[in-house]
Amino acid sequence: MKIASWNINSVRFRIGIVEQFLQQEQPDILCLQETKVEDGSFPHAAFHALGYDHVLLHGQRMHHGVAIISKLPLIEEERYDWQANGEARHVGVRLPNGVRLENVYVPAGGDIPDREQNPKFGQKLDFLARMTSWSEDVRVPTIMVGDFNIAPLECDVWSHKQLLDVVSHTPIEVETLGRLQASHDWVDLGRRFVPAPERCFTWWSYRAKDWAASDRGRRLDHMWCSPELTGNAVAHHVHEPCRSWLKPSDHVPLVTEFAF
User: Fold this and answer.
1) Is residue 221 a contact partner of residue 236, using CB atoms and an 8 Å limit?
2) In terms of residue numbers, what domain contains 181?
3) How far is CA 147 from CA 33, 76, 161, 180, in A?
4) Which residues of 133-159 are buried (b: 16+ CB within 10 A; e: fewer)?
5) Distance CA 61, CA 137 (A)
6) Domains of the chain: total
7) What pLDDT was estimated at residue 77?
8) What's the pLDDT tens digit per position in 218-246?
9) Is the pTM higher than 0.90?
10) Residue 219, domain CATH
């Protein structure tokens, strides 16, 4: 089973590269974040044409939004409000084999890493705290994917020293994500297959004139699994070339292959 995850930054605007990716990689399931579309306007036809007949949405006009698109049936759906304000940032399902799949889009957190000066930063930390409370009660084998908007390791950013005070790599964010990971002993599949300190980025800013030449990337996108599923994960790929496709997202897709 191939499961892909991609912050697409508007699924309708970038439907062309989504179709290109699906035709090229043929994942069984695609989890999208930042779809930026209400459920009624989601481009179902493009996915049905490629054999993805099962679509689970949690959309929102112009902002946020997540989706799970699958060739396999999806059951027991959930939509958690870890933001506590109604934003569409999570959708989860149970797969036919009983494994849970959770797709999450953690808030970016604004520009200032201080909850007093920047309420968005506090909302991000509180979002992760609510996720941690949920995670402590997880009792079934689970795969959790998405844009976590945190690069936790020093080697997960182009310059640890220069980004220590930049939102997404600050010590308090890294510590908060660490508590989430410890709450269920989540296995970071990205670093299981690409061990630190090997280079592994999933996001490059649009601000760079030549993103590849400057290579100022960060590993903001993640795939985690319950400890008991570690042995089922047999391959993991970061599809970096997608960053150069026509009208690209600033994120690239991840694909993990599982042997169930």
Assistant:
1) no
2) 2-258
3) 7, 22, 23, 14
4) ebbeeeeebbbbbbbbbbbbbebbbbe
5) 32
6) 1
7) 96
8) 999 999 999 999 999 999 999 999 999 99
9) yes
10) 3.60.10.10
